[in-house]
Amino acid sequence: MEASVFNILIFMQKRKFDSSRIRALALDLDGTALGAGAVLSSRTEKALRSCRERGIGTIICTGRGLESAEKYRQPIGAEGPMVYFNGAIVADMPEGKILSAVLLESEAADFCIGLSRETGAYFQLFLPQRDGRSFVLAAESRRPETGMYLNHTGMDAVVCDLREAVNAPGFPGCIKGMFIAEPEIQELLKPRLKEGLGNTVYIVRTFRNFLEILASKVSKGEGLKTAMKARGLKSEEVIALGDEENDLPMFSVAGFSAAPSNAGPAVLEAADLVIGANTEDGTAEFLEKTFLLKQH
User: Fold this and answer.
1) Cis ω on the peptide bond leading into residue 94 (within 30° of 0)?
2) How far is CA 240 from the centre of its chain?
3) How far apart are CA 286 and CA 22, in angstroms?
4) Domains of the chain, earliest start first
5) Rounded CA gap, 270 and 257, in Å?
6) pLDDT mean over 116-135
7) Which residues, in sequence order, are CB contacts of 229 under 8 Å at separation 6+?
């Protein structure tokens, strides 16, 4: 199994890849580095630590927030600028110093709240706090989606009137909004969102049930640009690994890209390289064989 998967990996290589030039991994978490149940396996942890020892850093590029991603960053010892909230926040870790923050305007959030109330689709907002680093996850009611998101990320939502929150005097804007709905419901929401908000927002699916609304200038690609500049990295020194459509912008920024074999069709098409599935430690296997790491 192991040899055949790697043979597929080589077969799917679309252009020459010089691993000796790589200095950093732009790494998505859910669906890529993490296995089933959002678990970081000991094999993947060991591979990422071994990369660090060889001078290959990890730039976490995730839809998660700082606190939610910490339980994955700490074990692998990753430090430096990281990309959070799909690029809305870039922070230097472990200090947590914010290097870049692009917020969703209140008017866009208000439109999404209205659409949620009209259609019954579950919607939640990530509201920034005064310290600039922490946030509150808020929703208008507790529903099964609230518990599902809690189980997935460890973050629970407070219940409040979202429209009142985003229209409060002096409100700076939201980090992002998120509809949690089945894909077929998302497809019904997308045209309404595009009609009502146009090019003022970035609409992207980040997980099977997650449809996120962010400021128009936000993406993992833009966040990665900021992180790379701060680290003094060139495009050809970075390989991006991701599985969902929100990872595509960072594929165009990094010099090379890889996707697990169970990624979405558009991501597989865009990737330079197809690696093993995240459920089979595909990221760890790729790192072990590409950088000649000691295997588990």
Assistant:
1) yes
2) 12
3) 14
4) 2-101+219-290 (3.40.50.1000), 106-215 (3.30.1240.10)
5) 8
6) 87
7) none
Over range 72-80, report the average pLDDT.
97
Above 60 in pLDDT, residue 188? yes
pLDDT above 70 covers a percentage of the chain that reads: 93
**For residue 103, which amino acid is it?**
L
Please compute the mean of the pLDDT values over residues 104-122 and round it to a whole number. 97
* Full 3-state SS string of 172-219: CCECEEEEECCHHHHHHHHHHHHHHHHHHEEEEEEECCEEEEEECCCC
This prediction's pTM: 0.88
The CA-based diameter of the chain, rounded to the nearest angstrom, is: 60
What is the C-alpha separation between 248 and 270, in angstroms, rounded? 7
Distance, first Cα to last Cα, the chain: 15
> For residue range 22-71, what is the model confidence (pLDDT) as tens digits?
999 999 999 999 999 999 999 999 999 999 999 999 999 999 999 899 99
User: Burial level of 35, CB count in 10 A (0-12/13-18/19+)?
Assistant: buried
